[in-house]
Design goal:
Helix content: 25-40%
Number of helices: 5
Strand content: 35-45%
Bound molecules: coenzyme A
Number of strands: 7
CATH topology: Aminopeptidase
Structural class: alpha+beta
Length: 152
């Protein structure tokens, strides 16, 4: 797996990967309205806008995008693994990469907001729950869990 910083040329593939992910989270009781809002928040245009505010990284296998993760300030953001590639250790490798990257930037503590889907994963790797937070995507509320981990 190769990890590199994303460029605008990658935005379409990143948006596609995240939108495909959204098709597989129905088990988490998201309403159709919430899924539409989530997808809108990860449209091509939205990803290009996010790229101005955060550093986004892409993971490739055989030149195919298999995952993405980002850093915005001291927040870990936008970790997604291609649905067909889940459960093969790629999520952990991207997480470890980002933590190392943040450490090298002298970030002491990483924060994130976890979806119900990602919560158990972050818990396994030492992120501590800090309570729930209401997030609004295109005016639609999604409840996530604030989490943090000391890096040093
Ligand atoms: C959550 C996600 C990033 C995990 O990536 P992944 O590549 O499937 O996970 P890995 O294969 O690296 O898993 C590493 C370990 O974490 C465990 N794990 C993975 N997802 C888990 C979850 N949701 N809850 C608990 N444990 C989990 C695995 O069982 C594995 O444990 P093991 O090494 O003891 O077998 C991925 O499933 C994903 O993209 N989900 C949808 C998007 C999402 O919810 N992102 C988080 C937004 S906050």
């Amino acid at each position: 797996m190769i990890i590199r910083k994303a460029t605008y040329k990658d935005a379409r593939r990143i948006s596609y990967l995240i939108n495909k992910n959204a098709d597989h989270v129905k088990e988490n009781n998201y309403t159709p309205e919430q899924l539409v809002a989530w997808k809108k928040d990860n449209s091509l245009k939205a990803i290009k806008t996010k790229m101005k505010q955060r550093e986004i990284f892409c993971a490739f296998e055989n030149e195919k995008l298999v995952g993405t993760i980002g850093l915005e300030g001291n927040y870990l953001v936008g970790l997604y693994i291609s649905y067909s590639k889940r459960g093969k250790g790629l999520g952990y490798r991207l997480l470890a990469f980002l933590e190392n990257y943040a450490r090298n930037k002298n970030i002491d503590e990483l924060h994130l907001t976890a979806t119900p889907n990602g919560y158990g994963f972050y818990l396994k790797y030492g992120y501590e729950p800090q309570g729930e937070i209401d997030l609004y995507y295109d005016g639609v509320k999604l409840i996530e869990t604030k989490m943090k981990k000391k890096l040093k």
